[in-house]
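4.2 Preliminary Data

To establish feasibility before requesting continued support, the project team ran the inverse folding procedure on a target of 399 residues. The structure was first converted into the token representation described in Section 3, and no sequence information of any kind was made available to the design step. The complete token record follows.
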């Protein structure tokens, strides 16, 4: 069985379940993991014999300062780290190296130049938006595109962004998120006779998730649905700002913050909801979505989606079929869509069924795993890009 060495700088953060799913779902490729930090071991189990944890890099702050203020280029790993990475790749006997994510591949430019194995890089959202107009970042990203055998993205919208940034079209491949549908069974909802509709958004509490828009949409529909409530599930830097906004809108008593949930707790909360909000938007720094995992899980469970025409969302949610799509930051359009659904039970139930169907058709995990494994095989057959000739003399000596 061929081996793919997956490089994850942190294996894994709590909100990176999609990466764990992708790695442990492989059937015809054997995964190995190379990382700098092993965390969340109970949540994300992995065979320790297939895991290489590299030692911390020394003088991290000094190196950041040097690259930023003296070299005026994006940070790159030092020669000693390149040697350790190459040794880890050789020990795993990997045929292909998979780097998560695009901004990490920028850090690993010296490794990409030295690696004798085909390297694939996957972009998931922010890494295809932030710093894209910075000339130094553009040059660094061009080096990644040049040295990668294939470049993956989670949505066609992200592929378009990467091609616009200079990635050759013949290297770009669509690799969608895979959802374990057995873990997210369809759950028919009952129309609340007392009007106590439960709205839900689950995500990291950061600007690109459109959480302020969610609060404003909920406030706009509240006069017509006085018994409705909204749950925001997740953690992040906006928590205090969102609480203040809910208070200023007069809805604080009907908005709850559950904190970060996963596993059975998240499924239980999702099953208690009637409508799922995810009005993503592009903030000033260019951060954007691929296709939100929480939204796909909500669709699989049978929740109609109220979202925006942002990133890869329209590739998952078909307007007026599996959900409603509004322009970014248009809270009134979302509120009107919610009021339409809550007053039309037949339309609500039809949309719930279609949401599940679309999740099955486009995002079922085993199908996406098979696509990923075929892409690994393609990368292996393509080999290292022609302009890159490997020589052991080019591997930096350990220091």
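Position-by-position output of the design step:
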């Amino acid at each position: 069985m061929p081996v793919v060495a997956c490089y994850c700088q942190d294996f894994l953060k709590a909100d990176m379940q999609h990466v764990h799913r992708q790695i442990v779902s492989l059937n015809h490729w054997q995964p190995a993991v190379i990382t700098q930090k092993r965390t969340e071991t109970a949540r994300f189990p992995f065979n320790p014999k297939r895991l290489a944890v590299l030692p911390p890099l020394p003088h991290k702050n000094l190196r950041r300062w040097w690259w930023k203020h003296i070299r005026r280029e994006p940070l790159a790993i030092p020669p000693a780290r390149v040697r350790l990475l190459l040794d880890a790749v050789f020990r795993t006997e990997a045929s292909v190296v998979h780097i998560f994510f695009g901004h990490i591949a920028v850090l690993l430019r010296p490794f990409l130049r030295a690696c004798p194995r085909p390297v694939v890089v996957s972009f998931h959202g922010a890494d295809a938006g932030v710093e894209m107009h910075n000339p130094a970042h553009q040059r660094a990203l061009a080096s990644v595109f040049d040295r990668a055998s294939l470049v993956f993205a989670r949505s066609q919208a992200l592929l378009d962004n990467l091609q616009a940034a200079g990635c050759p079209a013949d290297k770009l491949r669509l690799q969608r998120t895979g959802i374990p549908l057995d873990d997210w069974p369809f759950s028919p909802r009952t129309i609340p006779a007392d009007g106590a509709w439960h709205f839900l958004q689950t995500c990291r509490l950061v600007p690109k998730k459109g959480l302020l828009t969610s609060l404003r949409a909920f406030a706009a529909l509240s006069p017509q649905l006085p018994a409705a409530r909204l749950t925001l599930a997740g953690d992040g830097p906006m928590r205090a700002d969102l609480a203040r906004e809910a208070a200023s809108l007069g809805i604080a008593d009907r908005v709850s913050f559950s904190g970060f949930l996963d596993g059975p707790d998240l499924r239980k909360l999702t099953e208690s909801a009637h409508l799922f909000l995810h009005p993503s938007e592009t903030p000033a720094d260019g951060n954007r979505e691929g296709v939100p995992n929480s939204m796909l899980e909500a669709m699989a469970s049978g929740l109609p989606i109220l979202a925006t025409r942002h990133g890869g969302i329209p590739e998952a949610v078909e307007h007026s079929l599996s959900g409603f799509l509004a322009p970014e930051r248009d809270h009134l359009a979302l509120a009107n869509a919610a009021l339409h659904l809550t007053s039309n039970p037949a339309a609500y139930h039809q949309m719930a069924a279609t949401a599940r169907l679309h999740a099955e058709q486009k995002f079922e995990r085993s199908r996406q795993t098979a696509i990923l494994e075929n892409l690994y095989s393609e990368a292996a057959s393509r080999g290292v890009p022609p302009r890159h000739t490997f020589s052991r003399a080019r591997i930096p000596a350990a220091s």
